Every structure is written in structure tokens, then in C-alpha cells.
């Protein structure tokens, strides 16, 4: 089995909700990420799925050290990355990079493509001597399937898919080991989405990258991921290989999520196992006690309101955070 | 006679940079009790067509240059303004993608539903309130009698979309146009809303035009499907036929490029290149620069609609071959 | 995608993709292309250029001595010899209006520079760092906003700028500083809200993920994207400050002899409005046209820079 490159242990991120301007008082906590643990293995893609408010994007921000964690640890190659300062932190930045969701806001409109992709080298001059940078930028453009001649163009002269390629080139510039992809294809059209997904797959093979692939689209996640983690209201409810999660889901939320995805085959109409949840996701400001999914769960019992189910193996060889975990094929 | 019929609709956007031909002869129809899905990517013109039908295109820059929109065989585009407003208001309703911006934040949800009833139906305040509560009940908003007094921001995303559906149903429309009604919603909520729309459409025998880019959604609810590309309908067929034997290379490629939930793929098939610039639509078949089956004729001649039988048509020179596989 | 305006802009944007084929061009280039075709822009530029030339080389435009007062020609109406007539003191109104341009413009320009620099620096720091720094700076700016401009200026200037004291430089600096001190909060607020918006953009996140320093983020990423609204404000403010100078001078607390400015002229003429209206009319006209030109320029620039108005 491959070695873990990133080990996340009991990660918590709460955002205080404050009132007042000069004299602030905290009136509550948004429990965006509330005790999440997982390993990312070398060269693998870990998909993280969940609906809005499940904390998947906050997870990305914390892993990128854009937000400090409330508690918990994340070991990058065995070292706690939240404790890194100075040169160690700079090294970390070279090793973990991010691809963001919105190709329109993720590129500075006042900078040329050359400046955008070249910026990593300016921040980390030791990676590439000054004279070689333009050449490196051209190479990167070529790697992501863009015309190297376009180095002097501005972002608004590119389409959404091309912009996303520019964002990928920027993330690749420092030759990172891990790339966190935060909804990298959800803003793109279907035909363009496939191009970018294939590109991500090819780059992984070429550079031996590990991906944390965050998305809400379950089909996209299945396509790219080796393992998949399902999140709900700041907690991880189930984690397993792509096959375990999609073919043998054991958590009711995973089952409902899979069942809700429309399948592009009209002959399947009315022939699928349909689970319809009622209501929307509760607010992470005030999550339900015990199991957070219990308010929408058809299996909920008294114990679900009092005891938080641990994420552990109960059935079907992979961990699931449900007191009544049981396999049910829905796809 | 179709309930709502769009015929040879041409729309262009006149901007300082030039003229964009956004619609280039779009024809489709929807009958009472059926769901027509209009499938396309951004810039294909699927939303612009709906806006032309609703008469809510911003003009300028948009101009309808040719074509007709017939509702009960009367052309909305040539009708007198007042009659047109009346017909549209009570005959055709629209549900938008972004319920938050489609609902006015300074009025209660109830007020916005009641306003139409009072203006168009001359209902009293009390009757309108009663009807508004019934409508919120119909779209399964819990505690409708209380929530009718709340403001849009007090509703969650899914509830807001339900409120907008209730609002669109207020005047008992015969045609409901739903423009990406679930795109902004989470998948579990999306499923609820699609179920609701399908149920309402069935119960009321409405004609529904569902505009979407999501092949999955289309497959689950559509009776017929019209695929749009570069302001044209490139293929039309009933849902089962379209998915089983697509007759246009674009449809074929679109389906192949979609990752599927029920299988782990290896490499996705992609459509090369980019959607066309509507100011410089390629000659001949607009899809030819991206098409895997392109021939010389495609670069020159605009393909006409080939009838493939049973209401299946495709605007491809080689439609028969594409269907054959 | 489906609310009508965004669908329209989307289709236009898709259509506008034609720019992809053109030359590389920055947003400033786009703004320039937009400005180039606006008559309003050219009219205001023409007026401003003329005013600037007058301010720099007044001798080219007027040959009479602006400081030669002859009581014998007091309040004479316009004539071939003196186009705008003479004022109470027998000064040539035309010559004084021409020579007064420099002081009026200088006050407006310096006050604008002061306001923009002070306001932008405080605004961008406030917006970027947030927290207590933002809270303190915002409250301080609130206090300054709370002071009515005219009252504040009168208080400052009556205590510091007492008649008979100091030369032209001291008088002008005092007026500039009092305008700047009372106006910087506006620039700061504009910059602060632009900075807060820019800070939340994904490109700033991406830069932070790369390990960019705060200085780099502010200078490379935020400043270029926050400049547009401040730029627009500064053009309009320039006009307003020229007007403010006139107001303060009219009230007798702003510029005064030996400095000549439009405000000083209006102040001198105010008591004789019935007998010599020309002495008031011409400097007021200079003032109005100049202020208008800057406001028009600001409007044109704002429309060109704000893609939503296109």
C-alpha cells in the first residue's frame, strides 16, 4: 500500500459569529469543519463530496493554510503543517497548491497570463532563475494545452475552460506534490468539463500528483477519484474506495445523495431505487445533536439524537458514521 | 395545433463590437400535458429563446428580426401590446434559476403572489391571501399560513425555489417555462424540486418547457428533447430515442463527454475546441470545426433538418449515418 | 444564467469572445477604447487642457497686469480694451481670471492628491487587515465625516489663517490642508470597500496560497483592481475642491490677497453685485466651466471603467 503524503487528524474549523463593531461579542460558532480525519496517499485522488454547507470548501482553505484551524493537525510528509513557519512554510507552499472553482475570479484581471503563471517564480525565485522564467511559463502553457504564444494576453480574452487551464498552470508551476482542487470543473460547460477533467487526469500521471478533489457533482468525483469521502454538516459520514462508496454505500446520507443524482438514461425512469430526503440542509450554526443527519434521516432512532456515531467500520469493509449502517445499492 | 409554438425565430444582439446572431431560426412547440426539454450549453441560445417567448429580452441590445411565437395560434410578437401582456401574464409563466434575485427582497413572499391575483384577477386582499396560502401548500412549503408573511431571505434555497414555483402558478398558466430551475440547488434539493415540477405539470396538464444543460435532469423528466447549438436546434426527438440513437454528432459527443455515476470511466470523450463566437458563426454547419464526422460539404452548406421518422429530426448532412452508429 | 440581464450579458460576453482574436489588451486598454468614442470625454479633455495651459502660462493668454489696480477705472463694464471690464479696485477682470486660474487649480490639485493618497493608503490597509485596525480607522473617519465641511474649514482657517499673516505659500498650504483633512474619509471609504471586495477574490486566495507577502498582495493584486473607483472619485473631487476653494475664499477664510484666485475674485465682487455684475460673472463662469469639465470627465471615466454600465 502506498504511503500517506498528507494525514489529517481531527481537524476542526469554527467561524465565530460576532456582533458589534468596535466591541465585538461572539454570539455563536459556525461549525464548518468539525472533527475530520483522513489520509491522502501518494499519487491518489481523494474525492470529497457533499452539499453546500458541508464544509468541503472550508476544508480546502484550512489545508491551504488560508484559514487557521481551530484545532487538529495535518501532517504533510510527517510534519504538522499548521506549526510550520518561515522557510518551512515556504517549502510547504511549493508542495501544496490549489485550483479554485471560478475561472473568472481566480485570475487577476490586471495581469497578463505570463505574469499570472510567472508569479509563483517571483515569490519563490529559487525555483527558477530569472532568465529561464519566460521559457518555463511557455512550457507550462503548453503542458495545459494552451498556445504558448498567448503569454501576453489578459484573462478576459480567454474562455472559461481556457482560464481554468491557466489556473491549473499556475498551480503546477512550483511542481507541487499535492493539489487541492476546489470544484475545478463545476463552473464549466459539459463539453469543456470533460476536457479539463482529462487534463487533470493526464497531469496526475505525468507529474505523480496527489489530488484532494472537492466537488458536489458525484459523477465527476467518481470519474476522477480513487477514494471518496462524503461530508455532511462539517463531519465525514463515510469514506471508502470509489467502488465501496458508489456500489456499496452504507450511510443513509450517501445513499440519498447517490439516489438524487439524475441518471442520463430515460429507460431507467421509475426503475431506480428512489430515496427522497425532505427539507434542506440545517444551518451549521446550530447543527442537530447526536448524528447531524438525523433530522432528514428515515432511519433515525432515539440514540441518533443523543450519541454521535463514530466513523468506523460496521459493515461492508469501510468506515461509515451511522449507528444503523447497512448496505443498499442505489446506483 | 400546438399550445405554444416558436417558429423560425431569429434574434440578434447589436453591441458596439458587432452583431451577435444569438438565434438563427429556432422552431419548437409544446403541447398541453407534455414536457419539452431544451438542452444546450451556455451561449447556445436556450435561455434567449425563452426570454423572447416571455417578451423579457432587453432591447437593445436584443432584437427579434424574424419569426413568430404562437400561443393558441395567435402570434405574440405581432399582437397589440396590452393583449400581449394579458396573454403572457395569464397563459405563460416562468421559473428562474436564481430565486433569490427573481423574488423582490423588500416584499413578503405572500404579497408577491397576492399582487398578481389582485391585479389580474381582481381578487380581494383576503381572497388573495387565502389563495397564496393554498399555492404555498401546493408546492409543499410547510406551515404555509405563517410563511406567507415571511420575506424571501428567510427562506432556504429550496424553499425559495418552491415559493417561486407557487408564484408562477398563481394565474393558472397553461405553459410553464422553467429556466435551469435547479442548477443553483444542491442535488438532494434538486431532486425534490424536479419531482414537484413534474407532479404539478402532470396534475395540471400544463405544457412545460424545461431549459437545462443537465443531461441527467433531461433524461428523468422530458417527453421530448430539443438540442440547441449556436442558436439553432440541431436535433429533436422523444427522450428515449434521443438517448438511444442520437442523430446529430453534437448530441452524440455531448453524451460521450459526460461522466457517469454508474460507471467508472477511464478517459472521457471530449468535444474539441470551443463553442463558436456568435459574431462569427462558422460557415456551413456551425458545429463543423468541432465535429468528429466533418466532411467537405459541412464547411459549405448549412444542413437542413433531416426527418428521421417519429418526430426525430436532425440538422446534420449525415443524420442517417449518425443514427445508424 | 437565467435571470434576464445575466443571460443577456452572457450572450454578449460569448459574442464578445471575438476579442480573443484581437491584440492583447488590458482592462485599461479597453477603458481607453471605450473613452475614445465619447464626445463628452473629448469636450472635457479640451476644456481641462485649456485650463491647464492657462494655469501654467497665464502670460500667453493675458497681457494686462492682474495686480495693477487703478481706481480711476473702477467698475467699468466690458470693453474692447478690457474684455471682462474692471472691478471695484480697478483690476482688469480678464487678466485676474486668467492669473487666478493657477491658484484655483493648484488648490484643487494638491487637495485631491492629498485626499487620494491619505484616503487610499488608510483605506487599503483598513480593508486588507480588517480587525481592530479597520475598526479604529473607520471610527476616526466617521468622526471626520461628522464634521460639516464648511463649519470645519471655517474653524480651522479662522484660527490658523489669520489676516495679514504669511505669504502666498502658507495661505495656499493651509487651505489645501484644511480641505484634505476634512475630505479624506470619502476616499478612504471608497478604497476600503474596493479593497474588501478585492480581498475576497479568488486571485488573492491563489496568491496567498503561493505564499505571497502582504505587500505583494496589496501592491500587485489589490491596488490595481481598487484604483478605478478612486480614480473616478478623484476626477470629480478635483472639480469639487476647486469649488470648495471658491466657497472658502468667498467666506473670507480661504485664499486672500496677495493670492489671486477665482474665489478671491468672487469674494471681492460680492459686495458690488448690483453695480458691477460683470466682476462676479466672469470668474464664476470660469469656475463653473472648469468644475463641470472635471465632473464630466469623471462620469466618462466611470462609465468606461465600470463594465456593468457598458
From TrEMBL, chain A:
Lineage top rank: taxon: Bacteria
A molecular function (GO) term: ATP hydrolysis activity
Sequence ranges assigned to domain ABC transporter in this UniProt record: 6-258
Keywords, ordered alphabetically: ATP-binding, Nucleotide-binding, Transport
Alphabetical list of InterPro entries matching this protein: AAA+_ATPase, ABC_transp_ATP-bind, ABC_transporter-like_ATP-bd, ABC_transporter-like_CS, Oligopep_ABC_C, P-loop_NTPase
Family under the similarity heading: Belongs to the ABC transporter superfamily.
Cited PANTHER family: D,D-DIPEPTIDE TRANSPORT ATP-BINDING PROTEIN DDPF-RELATED, TRANSPORT ATP-BINDING PROTEIN
Protein name: Dipeptide ABC transporter ATP-binding protein
Protein's organism: Lentzea tibetensis
Automatic annotation (TrEMBL), chain B:
Primary localization class, coarse: membrane
Keywords: ATP-binding, Cell membrane, Membrane, Nucleotide-binding, Transport
Localization annotation: Cell membrane
Any Gene Ontology biological process: peptide transport
GO cellular component, one term: plasma membrane
Keyword Phosphoprotein found: no
ABC transporter domain mapped to chain residues: 4-255
InterPro entries in the record: AAA+_ATPase, ABC_Ni/Peptide_Import, ABC_transporter-like_ATP-bd, ABC_transporter-like_CS, Oligopep_ABC_C, P-loop_NTPase
Gene3D superfamilies, A to Z: P-loop containing nucleotide triphosphate hydrolases
Annotated SMART domains: AAA
Bilayer topology: Peripheral membrane protein
Signal peptide: none
Cited NCBIfam families: oligo_HPY
Entry's family note: Belongs to the ABC transporter superfamily.
Protein name: ABC transporter ATP-binding protein
Species annotation: Lentzea tibetensis
UniProtKB/TrEMBL annotation, chain C:
Protein localization: Cell membrane
Main subcellular localisation: membrane
Keyword Cytoplasm assigned: no
SUPFAM superfamilies found in the cross-reference section: MetI-like (SSF161098)
Membrane-crossing residue ranges in chain numbering: 40-61, 105-131, 143-161, 167-187, 230-253, 280-301
Lineage: Bacteria, Bacillati, Actinomycetota, Actinomycetes, Pseudonocardiales
Family from the record: Belongs to the binding-protein-dependent transport system permease family.
Protein name in UniProt: ABC transporter permease
Membrane topology per record: Multi-pass membrane protein
Amino acid at each position: 500500500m502506498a504511503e500517506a503524503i498528507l494525514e489529517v487528524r481531527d481537524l476542526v474549523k469554527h467561524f465565530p459569529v460576532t456582533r458589534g463593531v468596535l466591541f465585538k461579542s461572539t454570539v455563536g460558532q459556525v461549525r464548518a469543519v468539525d472533527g475530520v480525519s483522513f489520509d491522502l496517499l501518494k499519487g491518489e485522488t481523494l474525492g470529497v463530496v457533499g452539499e453546500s454547507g458541508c464544509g468541503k470548501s472550508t476544508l480546502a482553505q484550512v489545508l491551504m493554510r488560508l484559514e487557521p484551524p481551530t484545532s487538529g493537525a495535518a501532517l504533510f510528509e510527517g510534519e504538522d503543517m499548521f506549526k510550520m513557519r518561515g522557510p518551512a512554510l515556504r517549502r510547504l507552499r511549493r508542495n501544496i497548491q490549489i485550483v479554485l472553482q471560478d475561472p473568472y475570479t481566480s485570475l487577476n484581471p490586471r495581469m497578463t497570463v505570463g505574469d499570472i503563471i510567472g508569479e509563483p517564480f517571483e515569490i519563490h525565485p529559487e525555483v527558477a532563475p530569472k532568465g529561464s522564467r519566460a521559457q518555463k511559463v511557455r512550457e507550462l502553457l503548453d503542458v495545459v494545452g494552451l498556445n504558448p504564444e498567448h503569454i501576453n494576453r489578459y484573462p478576459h480574452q480567454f474562455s472559461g475552460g481556457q482560464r481554468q487551464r491557466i489556473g491549473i498552470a499556475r498551480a503546477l508551476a512550483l511542481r507541487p506534490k499535492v493539489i487541492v482542487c476546489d470544484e475545478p470543473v463545476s463552473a464549466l460547460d459539459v463539453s469543456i468539463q470533460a476536457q479539463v477533467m482529462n487534463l487533470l487526469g493526464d497531469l496526475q500521471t505525468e507529474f505523480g500528483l496527489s489530488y484532494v478533489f472537492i466537488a458536489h457533482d458525484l459523477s465527476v468525483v467518481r470519474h476522477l477519484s480513487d477514494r471518496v469521502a462524503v461530508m455532511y454538516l462539517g463531519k465525514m459520514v463515510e469514506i471508502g474506495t470509489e467502488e465501496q462508496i458508489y456500489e456499496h454505500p452504507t450511510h443513509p446520507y450517501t445513499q440519498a445523495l447517490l439516489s438524487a443524482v439524475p441518471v442520463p438514461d430515460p429507460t431507467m425512469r421509475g426503475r431506480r431505487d428512489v430515496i427522497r430526503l425532505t427539507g434542506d440542509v440545517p444551518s451549521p450554526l446550530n447543527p442537530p445533536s447526536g448524528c447531524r443527519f438525523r433530522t432528514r434521516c428515515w432511519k433515525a432512532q432515539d440514540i441518533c439524537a443523543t450519541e454521535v456515531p463514530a466513523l468506523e467500520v460496521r459493515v461492508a469493509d469501510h468506515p461509515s458514521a451511522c449507528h444503523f449502517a447497512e448496505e443498499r445499492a442505489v446506483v | 395545433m400546438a399550445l405554444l409554438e416558436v417558429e423560425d425565430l431569429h434574434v440578434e444582439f447589436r453591441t458596439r463590437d458587432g452583431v451577435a446572431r444569438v438565434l438563427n431560426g429556432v422552431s419548437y412547440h409544446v403541447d398541453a400535458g407534455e414536457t419539452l426539454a431544451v438542452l444546450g450549453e451556455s451561449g447556445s441560445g436556450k435561455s434567449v429563446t425563452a426570454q423572447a417567448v416571455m417578451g423579457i429580452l432587453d432591447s437593445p441590445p436584443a432584437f427579434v428580426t424574424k419569426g413568430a411565437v404562437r400561443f393558441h395560434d395567435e402570434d405574440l410578437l405581432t399582437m397589440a401590446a396590452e393583449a400581449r401582456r394579458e396573454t403572457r401574464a395569464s397563459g405563460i409563466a416562468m421559473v428562474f434559476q436564481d430565486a433569490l434575485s427573481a423574488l423582490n427582497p423588500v416584499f413578503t413572499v405572500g404579497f408577491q403572489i397576492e399582487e398578481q391575483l389582485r391585479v389580474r384577477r381582481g381578487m380581494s386582499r383576503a381572497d388573495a391571501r387565502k389563495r397564496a396560502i393554498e399555492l404555498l401548500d401546493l408546492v409543499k412549503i410547510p406551515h404555509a399560513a405563517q410563511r406567507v408573511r415571511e420575506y424571501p431571505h428567510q427562506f432556504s434555497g429550496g424553499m425559495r425555489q418552491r415559493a417561486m414555483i407557487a408564484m408562477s402558478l398563481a394565474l393558472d398558466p397553461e405553459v410553464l417555462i422553467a429556466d435551469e430551475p435547479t442548477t443553483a440547488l444542491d442535488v438532494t434539493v434538486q431532486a425534490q424540486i424536479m419531482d414537484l415540477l413534474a407532479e404539478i405539470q402532470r396534475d395540471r396538464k400544463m405544457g412545460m418547457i424545461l431549459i437545462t444543460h443537465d443531461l441527467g435532469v433531461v433524461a428523468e423528466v422530458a417527453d421530448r428533447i430539443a438540442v440547441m447549438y449556436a442558436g439553432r436546434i440541431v436535433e429533436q426527438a422523444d427522450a428515449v430515442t434521443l438517448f438511444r440513437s442520437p442523430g446529430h454528432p453534437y448530441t452524440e459527443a455531448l453524451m460521450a463527454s459526460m461522466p457517469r455515476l454508474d460507471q467508472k470511466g477511464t478517459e472521457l470523450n471530449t468535444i474539441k475546441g470551443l463553442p463558436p463566437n456568435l459574431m462569427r458563426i462558422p460557415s456551413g454547419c456551425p458545429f463543423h470545426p468541432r465535429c468528429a464526422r466533418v466532411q467537405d460539404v459541412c464547411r459549405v452548406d448549412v444542413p437542413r433538418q433531416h426527418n428521421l421518422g417519429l418526430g426525430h429530426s436532425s440538422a446534420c448532412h449525415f443524420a442517417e449515418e449518425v443514427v445508424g452508429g | 444564467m437565467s435571470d434576464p440581464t445575466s443571460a443577456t450579458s452572457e450572450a454578449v460576453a460569448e459574442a464578445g469572445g471575438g476579442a480573443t482574436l484581437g491584440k492583447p489588451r488590458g482592462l485599461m486598454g479597453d477603458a481607453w477604447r471605450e473613452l475614445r468614442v465619447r464626445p463628452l470625454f473629448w469636450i472635457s479633455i479640451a476644456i481641462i487642457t485649456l485650463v491647464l495651459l492657462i494655469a501654467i502660462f497665464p502670460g500667453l493668454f493675458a497681457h494686462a497686469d492682474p495686480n495693477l489696480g487703478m481706481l480711476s477705472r473702477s467698475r467699468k463694464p466690458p470693453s474692447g480694451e478690457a474684455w471682462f471690464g474692471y472691478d471695484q479696485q480697478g483690476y482688469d477682470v480678464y487678466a485676474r481670471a486668467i492669473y487666478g486660474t493657477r491658484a484655483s487649480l493648484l488648490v484643487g490639485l494638491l487637495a485631491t492628491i492629498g485626499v487620494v493618497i491619505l484616503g487610499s493608503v488608510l483605506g487599503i490597509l483598513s480593508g486588507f487587515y480588517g480587525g481592530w485596525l479597520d475598526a479604529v480607522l473607520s471610527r476616526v473617519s466617521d468622526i471626520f465625516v461628522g464634521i460639516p465641511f464648511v463649519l470645519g474649514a471655517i474653524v480651522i482657517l479662522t484660527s490658523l489663517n489669520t489676516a495679514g499673516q504669511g505669504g502666498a505659500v502658507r495661505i495656499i498650504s493651509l487651505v489645501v490642508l484644511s480641505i484634505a483633512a476634512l475630505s479624506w474619509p470619502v476616499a478612504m471609504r471608497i478604497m476600503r470597500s474596493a479593497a474588501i471586495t478585492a480581498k475576497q477574490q479568488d486571485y488573492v486566495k491563489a496568491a496567498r496560497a503561493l505564499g505571497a507577502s502582504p505587500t505583494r498582495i496589496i501592491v500587485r493584486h489589490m491596488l490595481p483592481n481598487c484604483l478605478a473607483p478612486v480614480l473616478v472619485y478623484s476626477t470629480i473631487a478635483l472639480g469639487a475642491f476647486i469649488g470648495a476653494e471658491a466657497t472658502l475664499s468667498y467666506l473670507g477664510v480661504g485664499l486672500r490677497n496677495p493670492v489671486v484666485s477665482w474665489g478671491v475674485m468672487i469674494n471681492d465682487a460680492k459686495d458690488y453685485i448690483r453695480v458691477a455684475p460683470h466682476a462676479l460673472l466672469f470668474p464664476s463662469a470660469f469656475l463653473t466651466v472648469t468644475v463641470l469639465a472635471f465632473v464630466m470627465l469623471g462620469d466618462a471615466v466611470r462609465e468606461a471603467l465600470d463594465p456593468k454600465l457598458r
